[in-house]
Amino acid sequence: MTPPSQPRERLRVAIQKSGRLGEPARELLASCGLTWRESRDRLFLYGESLPVDVLLVRDDDIPGLIADGVCDLGVVGRNVLVEHGLDREATGRPGRLTEWRRLGWGACRLALAIPEDQQWRGPDQLTGLRIATSYPRTLARWLGEQGVDAEPVLLNGSVEIAPRLGQADVVADLVSTGSTLRANQLTPVVTILESEAVIAGPDHALDDGRQEIADLLLRRLDGAVRLKESRLLMLRAGRADLDAVMPLLPAGHEPTVLPVERGSLDGGRDEVSVQVLVHGPVSWSRLEDLKRAGAHNLMVLPVEGMLA
Ligand code: PRT
Ligand code: ZN
Q1: Candidate from 39-43, 47-51, 270-274 with smallest mean pLDDT
Q2: Are residues 34 and 66 in the same domain?
Q3: How many domains does the chain divide into?
Q4: Relative to the alpha carbon of 171, which ligand is closest?
Q5: DSSP string of 22-87, one letter each residue
Q6: 5 or 222: whose pLDDT is higher?
Q7: Residue nearest atom 13 in ligand 1 by C-alpha distance
Q8: How confident is the model at residue 8 (pLDDT cuts 50, 70, 90)?
Q9: Ligand 1 pocket, CB under 6 A
Q10: Per the domain annotation, does 6 fall within a domain?
Q11: Are residues 71 and 202 in the same domain?
Q12: Is 187 a member of any domain?
């Protein structure tokens, strides 16, 4: 591998080798048109269609690889990025990172959870307690903001069983569905950090032409995300009901309204067909409101491709 101090003309992106974010990160890169050849040791994806290579690593290593200039960008949970940033700051090491994109998946939260037989009366109750966590810096920052003096206990796994083992009194752990906490008789009481997968990068532009490659990749990624979130809403309505129907359409592109040949469906009623491209989901209640306003034959379709 090229030492970071030497010019490097290919962009290098770090993603999780396995685990929750690995597969979606690969899919994300593939949706940007990246194809690759995998190295024999399965630690490196050599990009074929773009000058972009992918390093497969543990998620905890991703921020450090970027901060040290070994990689340019990385796909990582905000929880890992924030903890790393606070640790680097506290130990006086340079290399600040920022979120270049939020990805909207891999959502979870770092939550404080207490045994379910206890009552939550507020942060003051934590004074003097031992709090098991894999995120001691993030927890310490939150405790500082609350003005509470408690003791973070660093555990790198199985944080949720610490109170039962007597290693800690309460925990600060990642939660998504909450079933792990429930299974361990713990109740989440405060959210310390909301997290999702992000693209992390340095807080400055990249050198040696790599910024241009990164811009191309991010442009494609933005397009791919928009496409994934896009849906075509189609409906039919009597022309007389259009005034009631149109304001209920979700915000999106300009709707297309086309006349329907008389007599084809509704016994000769003056009908129109309405199509609108929308970004984000279309809820059942929205469809029901439209139907009440006179629309029928409502349909929400996924969009496979788009070129304006
Ligand atoms: O091997 P490597 O170090 O790369 O992986 P890892 O084991 O450290 O991480 P991994 O793959 O478990 O998680 C990677 C990232 O996924 C995390 O850093 C978060 O950003 C994100 N993420 C999203 C989660 C969860 N949801 C999640 N639920 N990470 C962990 N969990 C844990 C949670 O702590 C609980 O113990 O999964 C368990 C199930 O959660 P519940 O609430 O659904 O029961
Ligand atoms: Zn990890």
Answers
A1: 39-43
A2: yes
A3: 3
A4: 1
A5: HHHHHHHHHHTT--EEE-TTSSEEEESSSSEEEEEE-GGGHHHHHHTTS-SEEEEEHHHHHHHHHH
A6: 222
A7: 20
A8: confident
A9: 16, 19-21, 58-60, 77, 79-80, 106, 108, 173-180, 195
A10: no
A11: yes
A12: yes
Look at residues 66, 70, 91 and name the one whose alpha carbon lies nearest to residue 81.
66
pLDDT at 252: 75
Q: Report pLDDT for 117.
A: 95
Q: Which ligand 1 atom sits nearest the alpha carbon of residue 58?
A: 4
Mark whether 175 and 122 lie in a shared domain: yes
Are 138 and 175 in the same domain?
Answer: yes
Q: Is 159 part of a structural domain of the chain?
A: yes
The tens digit of pLDDT for each residue in 277-304 reads 998 889 999 999 999 999 999 999 998 8
Residue keyed to tokens 């290693």: 167
Q: Where residue 270 sits, what CATH number does that domain have?
A: 3.30.70.120
Q: Is the pLDDT of residue 263 over 80?
A: no
Q: Within this chain, do residues 203 and 98 fall inside the same structural domain, yes or no?
A: yes
Instruction: Give the range of the structural domain holding residue 77, as residue numbers without chain letter.
Output: 11-106+197-227
Mutate which of 20, 105, 134, 187 for ligand 1? The one with the most ligand atoms within 8 Å of its CB, which is 20
Alpha-carbon gap, residue 286 to 288, rounded angstroms: 5
Atom of ligand 1 nearest to the CA of 177: 43
Please give the model's pTM, rounded to 2 decimal places.
0.84
Q: Is there a single domain that holds both residue 66 and residue 76? A: yes
41: in domain: yes
pLDDT tens-place string over residues 160-216? 999 999 999 999 999 999 999 999 999 999 999 999 999 999 999 999 899 999 999
Q: Whose CA is nearest to atom 43 of ligand 1?
A: 177
Residue 219 DSSP class: H
Give, as residue ranges, everything with CB less than 5 Å from ion ligand 2: 59-60
Do residues 241 and 260 both lie within one domain? yes
Last residue of a domain, one of 147, 176, 195: 195
Residue 101 sits in the same domain as residue 216: yes
